[in-house]
Amino acid sequence: MDHFPTNWGRPRNDAYDAYGTFPIPNRPLNAPKDAFGEGVQRTQQPIVTGTSVLAMKFKDGIMMAADNLASYGSLARFKDVQRLQPVGDYTVIGAGGDMSDFQYIQSLLDDLVVEEFTNQDGHNLGPKEIHEYLSQVMYGRRTKINPLWNSLLVGGFKDGERFLAYVDLLGTTYSADTLATGYGAYIAQPLLRRAVEGRAGGADALPEEEAAKIMEDCLRVLFYRDARSLNKYQTAVITASGVSISDSKALETSWSFAEGIRGYGAQTQ
Amino acid sequence: MNPMNTAAQPQQRQFNPYTENGGTILAIAGVDFSVIAGDTRQSEGYNIQTRYAPKVFRLTDRAVLAVNGFAADGNMFVKKVKQRLEWYRHAHAKDMPLHAIARLIQTMLYGRRFFPYYVYNILGGIEDDGSGAVYSFDPVGSYERETCRAAGAAQSLVQPFLDNQIYFKNQQPAPGTAHPAHLPLPHVLSLVIDSFTGATERHIEVGDGLEIYVVLAKGRDLSGLEGFAGLQEVSSRSDGERIFVIRRELKKD
Amino acid sequence: MTSIGTGYDLSASTYSPDGRIFQVEYANKAVENSGTIIGLRVKDGVIIAVENLVHSKLLVPGANRRIQTVDRHMGLVRTISLFLLTVHHMSILQASAGFLADGRHIANRAREEAGNHRDTYRSPPSLKTIAGRVGLYIQAYTLYSSVRPFGISTVVGAIDKDGPALYVIEPSGVFYGYHGAAVGKGRQLAKTELEKLNLAEMSTREAVTEAARIIYAVHEDNKEKEFELEMSWIGDETKGLFVPVPKDLKDEAERKAKEAIEGDFE
User: Which family, according to UniProt (chain A) (predicted)?
Assistant: First the structure.
C-alpha cells in the first residue's frame, strides 16, 4: 500500500524492472512541478485526502482506528474529520484517500441501509454483505476508468463471527487478522502482525485493553513518522453488543529527544 | 530510460486500472487424475496484503480453476465463470464438461480483448473420457491442453523445473527404456510441493500457504492420497469424480 | 349515484354538469369499502392500526401486511380499495389485486421521494414534504382520460424534525394533517371513538391499547369476516424507528380490546 494516495492506481513501471529489484518502485515525484508543463489531463486525482486506517481482530470483535485529519496536499486542511463510519447495526467502515469520494460512498451506503430497512423482511445487512457491495461498486468504477479514490477497511461482528476486510480503488480485496491502509501498511502493519501473529493463540487470545494499547502505539508511531497524520484520532470497537465509536482522543507524544539532535532547536551546528 | 528520471520530460499520468498481486499457480495432469495448486499469499509491491487469499477454486466436481495476476480481475472472472456454469446447470441439468468449460473461458477472456482481465488461468480436471487434463490460457483467451503448466510470479522458476521433471527435457532415457508419458499421483504431489517450496525460497511474492486440489476420475481409488496431512474432500458426491484439497504451510518470510 | 349511465363517469378528465368528477368519487367508494385504518398522533409518537381483512383461510397469518415502511423514520399505510373503472367491473378479486398494486406503487413512490430528498438535501424529509409530493403524484392521476385515479387513501405517520406527524392523502390528491385519522369501512365509528381521546396527552404505549380497542370495536359491524390486527408505531420506545408493535404488547392490547367489547355486550 503506497503512502501517497496520489500515487495509487498509477503504473508501477514494471517494464524496466520485472523482478522489482529497484529499491522504491513507487517513489513519489518530488521535483518541482509545472502544472501546464505536463500537458495532459488527468483522469482523476484525489484532492482532500485522509491517511492510514488501522484495524485488527481481538478476542471479542474488531477494533479500528483512524486519525481526524483530511489533508489538502501537504496542508493539514481539516482537523476534525471522522473517517470511521458506522453502517447498519454491525459494521464500521474506515476510509483513506479522497474524502469527497468517501462522502459519496457514505451516501450510497445510507441509501442501501434505508432500502434494506424499508423492506422489513427480517434480513439485516452484515459486514460481509456491505464489503461485497463496496467491492462491486469499487471494481465497477475502476472498470469504467472512473475510480472512487479510496482504500477502505470494513470491520464488523454479526452472528457470533468477526469480519475484517479491505477494498480499494482497483477493486482489490483481501481479508486478514490485521489490516492497515496507506502509510500504515508500512509502519503499523508489522507492529500489528507482531502483536497478533506473534502471540500464542493469535487474535483469539488478545483482550480488548491490549488491542487498544497496541492500536494507540501504532498511531503514535504513525504520528511521529507520517507527515500527513494527526495526533487526534478515534477508535471503533465492534463486538456482539454492537458498534461503538469513541470521541476524538489525543495522542500522548514526547519530543524531548529532539533537543539532542543537531540542526534542531538550540543547537544549530 | 532511467525510471527515476521521471521529472525530466512530460509524462502521462493517468489512472492505471491494473495491478499485479503476485503468487504462483501450477497444474499437472495424470492418466486419471489432475492436480491444481496455488500459494495463498497476496501481495502488491513489497507489501504482503494477506497470507491467505485463495487462487484455486472448485468449479464443478470435475473442474478446478486456478487464477493468477490482478486479484480483483481474478475474483470477478471466477465469479462470472461460476455464474455461467450455474446457468448451464439450470438449462441442462448436468455439469458442463471440462473441454466446454475451457472453450467458455476462452470466449469470456476474448470478449474482453480490448480491456482484458489481467489474469493467467489454468483449468484442471477430468475429461468426459476419464483422462486427467490441464488447460492453460493467456489473458486474452489463447489456450491449449497440456500435461503441465506453471503461471504467475514464479513461472520462470517453476516451469523449467516441470519441463525437466515431467517432460524429461534434457534427459536421456536409459538404453532400452522410455520416459513415462504420465507420472503416478504421489510423484506428482511431491513435485508440486517441491516446486512451491523452491519458489518460496527464491521469489519474494510466493509463500505463506499452499492449496493443492486433486481431482480423481470416476471410480479411481484414493491410492496415493491416503494418509496425507491436511487432506479434505470437497466433492459434492462420492460416486462420480472426486475432489480433494490438501492445505500446507509455506515459509512466511 | 343517480348519474350512473349518463356518460360523465367514464373518464377522470370529464366533469359532470354539476361539477363533479365521478371517477375520483368512485375511487373514494373503493376506499370506503375496505378494512378500517386508524392513525393516532400522540404526545411522543404515532401509531397506525389496521383492520386487515383476511379474504382467504389459505393466506399465511402475519404475511401480506398492509403497513409498509417508506423511510427510516416514516411508516406508511394505504387503505384498501376496490378500484373501479366502471361499476360493473367491480369484484372482490379485482379489488384486492388492485389495492395491493396501487398501495405498493404509492409506497414505492413515497420511498423515491424520500430518497431524492435525502440525496438532494442530505437530511431526512419532513412528513409534510412527503405527503405533499405523494399528493401531487396522486392528483396527476385525476387529470387524464388515459389513467384511472388511485383507489387508495394513504395514511402516513412519522416523527420528523417538528415532532410526531400524521397525514392522510385521499384519491383526489388532497392531504390533511390529523391528530387522529380514520379511513375505510368503519371510519365513522372510529372517528367518534378517537374524538373521545385526549391524544395530545397520551403516550404511545397507552395509544396501543386504545388503537386496538377501536379496531376491534369497528370490526363488530363487519363480524362475518376474519381479520388480523396490524399495528406499527414510532415513539420514545422505538429509538426513532417506525416498527411493528412488539408481540407481547400487542397481545395484551388485543386481550383488553376483546374484554372491552364483551363488557359492552353485558
Answer: Belongs to the peptidase T1B family.
